[in-house]
Design goal:
Layout (H helix, E strand, L loop, with lengths): L5 E4 L5 H16 L5 H11 L2 H9 L3 E8 L2 E10 L3 E9 L8 H11 L6 E7 L3 H9 L3 E10 L2 E11 L12
Helix pairs in contact: 1-2
The structure holds coenzyme A.
């Protein structure tokens, strides 16, 4: 059996692999409800080496990759706020999904901010995979908001998880 991808902190050297995962998984995930040009515009604007390098360098951000035999298959980015961990991105290549990698990336992101009381994220309402994954992980819907991506209106579901970590350990903002 192929060993499970190893989850580790991301470095600048990982940027090409991260971009490949984001591009493939974005097309697969959002292709059903966003026009191809909107997806390509978003990828071109939001996943540039410069944007990703700035993200990796941000002290309040934790970024990890899951690396298998064939290279990087998953990525997570999370931001530490005073009481909340915000999961900003979580993507696993379509061919590598349903093997526990998403769960391990999410666990690594939560573990990176041990003092936080809650975790929060936004998932597109039509993203059935993402919603099923987060529900299974214990997140509950707490609200929603609308956004526009390259001219297409999307509905984002805000989900939260009580991590119960408050007071367990010292809360050091990072
Ligand atoms: C969401 C995502 C990161 C999950 O990654 P993954 O590696 O497949 O997740 P796991 O294997 O750890 O799944 C854990 C559990 O979540 C649930 N789950 C995951 N994918 C699911 C799906 N497609 N349908 C239903 N349940 C699902 C299952 O209960 C699964 O356990 P099981 O496989 O034993 O039944 C991945 O599907 C993905 O990258 N999706 C596209 C991007 C995305 O939606 N990101 C999140 C929103 S920003």
């Amino acid at each position: 059996m192929t060993p499970a991808p190893r989850v580790r902190r991301a470095t600048e050297d990982d940027i090409p692999g991260i971009r490949a995962v984001l591009a493939e998984t974005w097309r697969d995930t959002y292709g059903a409800f966003l026009p191809p040009e909107a997806i390509e515009r978003a990828i071109a604007a939001w996943h540039t080496p410069r944007v990703l390098a700035a993200e990796l360098a941000r002290a309040s951000t934790f970024a990890a990759v899951a690396e298998g035999d064939t290279g990087i298959v998953g990525v997570v980015t999370a931001r530490g706020r005073p009481e909340v961990v915000e999961i900003a991105r979580l993507y696993v290549r379509p061919g590598a999904q349903r093997r526990g990698t998403g769960g391990r990336l999410l666990a690594a992101a939560l573990a990176a901010f041990p003092g936080r009381r809650r975790a929060r994220l936004e998932v597109e309402a039509q993203n059935a995979k993402g919603r099923a994954f987060y529900l299974e992980a214990g997140f509950v819907a707490v609200g929603e908001r609308s956004v526009e991506v390259s001219g297409t209106a999307l509905r984002l579901i805000v989900m939260e998880l009580e991590t119960g970590a408050a007071g367990d350990r010292q809360d050091t903002p990072r």
